[in-house]
Amino acid sequence: MTVPTVRYTDERLPNGLRLVISEDHLVPVVAVNLWYAVGSKHEQPGKTGFAHLFEHVMFQGSRHVAKTEHFALVQAAGGSLNGSTWLDRTNYYETVPSHQLELALWLEADRMGTLLEALSQENLDNQRAVVKNEKRSSYDNQPYGSWQEKLFGHLYPEGHPYHHPTIGSMEDLDAASLEDVAAFFRTYYAPNNAVLSIVGDVDPSLARTWVDRYFGPLAANAAIPTFRPHPLPLTLGGEHREIVPDRVPLPRIYVGYRAPQLGDVRLYALEMAAQVLAGGKGSRLHRRLVRDAQIAQDVAMFGLAFSSGPSVFMGWATVRPDATVEAVETGLFDELARICREPISDDELGRAKALIETDELGGLQRVGERADRLSGYATQLDDPGEINRQLERYLAVTPEDVRAACAECLVADNRVVLTYVPADAGREPAETA
Fold it and tell me: Which alpha helices (DSSP H) does 365-398 contain, by range?
């Protein structure tokens, strides 16, 4: 097959800002995507949640933009926007009609350069309260809401930058001072710590003129700390289990494994394994646990790739009311053991590749997704050209590649098992091992 190619330019401004531009005149829209190389992994003990808190603060105004006006201006121009925070990065993005590109660039540059001029105790307190409410609604008071924090807490030891959750702790959020937040901004929100991607109906020459005008005068930070996490082995060296009594409607088993770091070719084989195991109603786990035995209500299996330590391969199965946790766990681990032991069939591999190919091609059709991928690959792998290699690598995976990657990673001494049970089910208190 012919794999589509995303054409782009890649350059740096004198202040270190990396600029990636990709023309696509199919429709009159353009995506602006700005990745900062700062996430929750950069936070210090006692100051967790700062990266995510700052994502919220970034929409509270700057020298020339009033509080919440960033949203109002983009939406009035017919565009959409948002931001997100994760372990390895924070990003901000707009998709606007192409004639509004200058507005989006000016807005992003104004807050990169002058946000501290609008930062106040009132804004900080307001957004601190918003984040705390988000933590309550999405984590603390959500059924199974603590699963990721607990899973990562077992997969990464105390002190590792991936050990704590991106949302942070209530205590650290309460303790965050105005000077703490300002210092975080001065350290990481600099042009030489960012990648700006512009994708869509764009005149590259005009876009460069605007980028030079608005971002060019911003000063670089020569003192961005070097990030060197302590390396971890690929395997845990034992199985970790925890029983979690919680306000949940049904028992659920979560399982997680350390996996190779972002950029490792074994991740492509593991993604194929996730599709074979739980990718839709034709997958192994769905057929065995949901359709045939009817002991699980739903199943999932997927990977999350990280750039500063082992990635994660994880999933879950929700136990039906008339079934037992033990029966579901047995079926789940039987299928995981089988994929480690026996090569998958050509039909299974073909189905998995078709699902991934559809997802990849669908993503590449959207200017916002292309901009995000270009920024991400430039930030994490120092090469936006990775956008053009992903699909070929997936399609090159063989059944033996899948078996070998699974046999290396999906083993008992590299496994975390969380079993959520209804708090009133009379089970024993949570235990860890």
Answer: 367-381, 390-395
Q: Name the class of domain 9-214.
A: alpha beta
Q: What are phi and psi of 68, to 5 degrees?
A: 65, 0
Distance, in Å, from the CA atom of 109 to the CA atom of 366, rounded to the nearest integer, reads 24
Domains 9-214 and 240-422 share a fold: yes
Give the sheet arrangement for strand 252-259, strand by strand. 240-246, 415-422, 252-259, 311-319, 296-304
- Between CA 19 and CA 432 the distance in angstroms is 47
Q: How far is CA 192 from CA 15, 214, 219, 223, 308, in A?
A: 6, 15, 9, 10, 19
Domain ranges of the chain: 9-214, 240-422
Tokens of 403: 């078996």
pLDDT in tens, 348-359: 999 999 999 999
Residue 1 has pLDDT above 90, yes or no: no
In SS3 terms, 124-140 reads as HHHHHHHHHHHHHHHHH
Run of H or E residues at 31: strand 29-36
pLDDT in tens, 111-124: 999 999 999 999 99
CATH architecture group of domain 240-422: 2-Layer Sandwich (3.30)
- 376 within 8 A of 84, measured Cβ to Cβ: no
Token digits of residue 180: 């703490």
Query: To 10 degrees, the CA torsion angle through 137, 140, 142, 146?
Result: 130
CA–CA distance from 178 to each of 46, 51, 125, 132, 181 (Å)? 15, 14, 9, 17, 5
Single out the residue of 244, 311, 309, 231 nearest to residue 271, CA to CA.
311
Cα Rg of the chain (Å, integer): 23
Count of other CB atoms within 10 angstroms of residue 182 = 15
State how far the Cα of 368 lies from the Cα of 372, in Å rounded to an integer. Answer: 6
